[in-house]
Design a protein that fits this description.
This protein is mostly helical. The protein has a domain of about 50 residues. The chain is about 65% helix and about 0% strand. The chain contains 3 helices and no strands. Helix 2 runs antiparallel to helix 3. It starts with 8 loop residues before the first helix and ends in a 10-residue tail after the last helix. The mean pLDDT is about 85.
Length: about 80
Amino acid sequence: MANSTIGNSKAMKEEDCLGCRLVSGFGLFFIGAYLYRQSQRQSGTFSKITVVSLSAVSIGLGVARICNAPLFPKDK
């Protein structure tokens, strides 16, 4: 039972397969694109800025996920 998936969860978190990164990264990217498109329909300035901000964050996270960028590097 020492080789269970729970025991290997640390190793699994550090390395993701390319397919996993592509699916989740493009998912976030297209959610951001959808939010940006919906922001064009907003009439209020505050709501437009809010939706564009959420869109930018989602697109940024998607690109970072695809590139496997370490967002929070570990201190050594």
